[in-house]
Amino acid sequence: MTRALLLLALPIGIAALSAGPSRADNPIGQVPAIREGLIATGIAVEISDKCDDLQPRVLRGLAYLESLRAHARELGYSNDEIDSFVDDKAEKNRLEAEARARLASMGAVEGQGETYCAVGRGEINRDSAIGRLLRKARVAR
């Protein structure tokens, strides 16, 4: 899931030029919209890594992650707090474990790419947050 970490951390870790507003009450990892958004993004990337039939929608994913960063700033988190959260290895490991556990509960089985494809196609059909971050792979001509 190294690629997932890169896609998760890169846009969120980009420092903004202006200072953020005052600190929010809860740790950033406990904000449901941010937590769920990062997990959905990680799941989509993991599916695209394990299923040759599906690709990540990279630009859409980057825009989505930037919207999560903006949401964190709106809630009062500073850019330094956001960057610290993104750089926290324990938090990355926790989110990765949650993403993998959810994928398994959705039917994905490690080493069986078709199970990841089935989950991904189902998410696309449901137009879920995960599904909106995936698309069918283009066939080379």
Automatic annotation (TrEMBL):
Q: Does the keyword Signal apply?
A: yes
UniProt xrefs under Pfam families: DUF5333
- In terms of superkingdom, the source organism counts as Bacteria
**Which region is the signal sequence?**
1-24
Q: What are the record keywords, sorted?
A: Signal
Q: What is this protein called?
A: NADH dehydrogenase subunit E
Q: Which organism is it from?
A: Oceanicola granulosus (strain ATCC BAA-861 / DSM 15982 / KCTC 12143 / HTCC2516)
